[in-house]
Structures are given as C-alpha cells and as structure tokens.
Amino acid sequence: MAEKFKDACGVFGIYGHPEAAKITYLGLHALQHRGQESSGIVTSDQERLYVEIGMGLVADVFSGEVLRRLPGDMAIGHNRYSTTGASHIKNAQPFVAEYMRGGLAIAHNGNLVNATSLRAELEENGSIFRSTNDTEVIAHLIAVSHRKPFLDRVVEALTRVRGAYSLLLMTEKELIAARDPYGFRPLCLGALGEAHVVASETCALDLIEASHVRDVEPGEILIINGEGVTSMKPFKPVFPHQCIFEFVYFARPDSTIFGENVYLVRQALGRQLAREAPVDADIVVPVPDSGVPAAMGFSKQSGIPFELGLIRNHYVGRTFIEPQQSIRHFGVKIKLNTVRRLVEGKRVIVIDDSIVRGTTSRKIVSMIRGAGAREVHMRISSPPTTHPCYYGIDTPTRRELIAASRSCEEIRRYLEVDSLQYLSLDGLISAVEEATHGRYCSACFTGRYPVTFPEMEVPQELELPFR
Ligand code: AMP
Questions:
Q1: Is the whole model's pTM more than 0.85, yes or no?
Q2: Is 413 close to ligand 1, i.e. is its CB under 6 Å away?
Q3: Which annotated residues bind Mg(2+) (predicted)?
C-alpha cells in the first residue's frame, strides 16, 4: 500500500437536534487540535445521508452555505490529523458508503493493527477499496456480514478488527458509538436538552453547553436512536490500556478524559518532575502551549518563579515563504519568540511535555541563549519517547525519534543545554494512575505494545519483544 494507515483524529456526533450540522461544526471546532488535515460532516434526515467533506481546518471547510446543505437532526463529524505521508481527500472522513441496506457513515479515531491483512482477505473475496484508510475496512466488514440486524453486523465487524478505535457509525436512522476493549482513545457521552452527544473530548461538550453524562467505556457500544441510548458490551473483557500520551500532550487541557481533568494531571506531572529533577535556577519557562501546565506544577513545587519567557504567535499557517537571505531558525521563530528582558542574564528552566525529533527543542534553546540566558536547563514532563505509536497518535518512525537511539547525555549535547532530565516512567504512571485510578498504555515510552501485530503487519522498524 502506498500510504501508511495513520489516523489520530477527533470525532463528534449528535442525535435528536434540529440544528445537528451546526452543533457538529461547533463540536469539531473545539476538537480542532486533534486533527487539522481535513474535516467532514455527514447528516441524516431519517431518509438519506448528506455529506460535506473538505481539506483543511473546520472553519475553512464549512461556511453557512455548506452547512445549509446538511439537513436533518442527526450528524457525525470528523477532524483528521495531519500526517507526514500524502494527505488526500479520498482519505478524509467520515467515510461514507452505500450498500444494499442503505447508507453508512463512519468516523474513526484510532488505528487498526490488522487492517492490511483484513483488506487483503476482503479484496480476495471481491471487495473494491477506494481509499487507503483503515476505516474503510470496517465498512466492508459490515457490508459483507451475513447477519441481518445492523447492530449484529457492526458487532461482527468489530470482533474482527484489532487495535484502537473510538468510532461513530451512522445510518439514516441511528447513531452507534463504539470504543475498543482497550479504550486507547477517549470518547464521552453528553446530553444537550433532549439530544444525545458523543465526542472525543469534553471540551466539545462545553462549547455547545451540553452536560458530560459519562465516558463511553472501553469495550462498550452505545446505540442511539428514537428509543434513547442503549448500551452493550459484546467483547471479551481485557484490562483497559488507555493512552497515557493523551494526558501528556494530545488532549486539550480543559478536557476531562479517562476520569480526570487534563490540566490537573499535567500540573501533577510538573510537580513530580520538580521532585525528581530539581535544579537551582531563576525562572521556569514553558514551551507554549503544550508545556504550560507542567511548568506551572514545576514552579509551584520548586518555588522558582513561573514566567512566560516564550511567546507564541497563534496565527501561523502551515507554510511560510522565507526571504532569500535565510533567517536563522526561521521555522521556530515564526511561531515562537523570547521575551528578552525576562531571560537576559538568567538561569532558565525550560519545560516541555515531550521531545520527538529534538529539532524544535534545539532551536528553542538556541533562541533562549541568543536572548542572553546565562544557563538553560531542560526538563521534560514525560519519559524519553523511544517507540512509535500504532494506536492512533501520529509519531515518526524509530529512526527519527531521537531518544530511540541516543542516551540522555547525547541528547543533552545535541540540544546544547546545561542539563536535561526527563520524568521517570514510574513517576509518570504513578502520577496519572493516582489521579484517575485507570490503567494505561505507555508503549511510546516502553515499546511494550498491549495489542500485538499480526505476523504480516509487524512494523519493519520494530524488534519483536512482544511476539
Ligand atoms: P521536537 O523538539 O522537534 O522533538 O519537538 C517537540 C515538540 O513536539 C514538543 O513541544 C511536543 O509538545 C510536540 N509533540 C509531541 N508529540 C507530538 C505529535 N505526536 N505531533 C506533533 N507534535 C508533537
């Protein structure tokens, strides 16, 4: 397959609201951080499905006129994460298909680890695929099922797929929400008057003034139709392994996921980091926005003042034209600038949530030194990211992950910082588990993948401790 299956996204659905499309548009807007590549909404007026999908941000894709083409009182929507691979409208979601029983729309957040082998099997039996999206595999499995009731077809299809999915499915008449048995990605249920809402994160419920009823549980399927919300748990139960990286970086700090507010968890990580890796310095400076809550926690715990020594420009688009005479660290400078008066002559502790390739961090450090900092100490509120995620977060290959092949001291030298320390794995897990009483997947920090890969789909760059 030319493109890699890769999806880290935001999903939103509503049943029983006269302005379903508009509410979904707002929900997607709140979930924009989960995906910026494409955005789509499918509605139903109980007779047929209406589809509007485009490349770009929610506000670029949907205008008043586009939303008027989406009638009906139920809808699902999807934001797709920008990936390094080819991005194409054919992979944009919701995925919509017509099969002999009617229309079907699917919005998927996650990543299936056995999509390639299922696809090969389906193609062998005559299915023709039109995208390289793993979500399409689910649509085909539903279509070829011999079961009669739609729900049974969905359950049969989901019994065959392995990996991560927080999923919304919609027919002309009903909405189905499903979360994989491990519960990798978040999914919550809300209420807006008489209407039922499902969303990746609670920040989407807040914007539309819906209440947070509860999370969709790992392994749970919700059927939402004229009779209300029905729950079932058809899968063999397993220990949930929710994604710890959602707390570290991905989710929005104002959301409550997996039973706890993201901001508070990030603050706790910062406090733990200060206990584990103290350093004598003058100011604590976050890399905005992702490092802010952890830096607050670090500052409170250490007593070292918190300062916004780096300011982010929030209006930067994807690409920028650089003048002929190139500007040093242009890519970072266009997004971030130092407050020179704050850092000049100071011993600065820079806090970020994670280091991926290290390229951004290196430029930030150089910028802070350029502004006159006397010392720069870096503290990271998660352990070294050593392994790619195959459950729905877009991470580069092991070769590109700086911590996969280099020691902390080697990374320190590369970043040109006076000291570098990461949060310990124990520190991360105990802080998160204490706050939420949940169980977590931390494969990106350990390489211990809770859902193993079928023989033919083991990613090439992985050694195989999990077989
Ligand atoms: P770098 O120094 O180039 O490794 O960049 C580190 C920055 O990337 C940190 O500020 C992180 O918040 C951010 N980051 C971490 N994980 C991801 C991800 N999956 N996608 C995009 N950015 C990320």
A1: yes
A2: no
A3: 290, 352-353
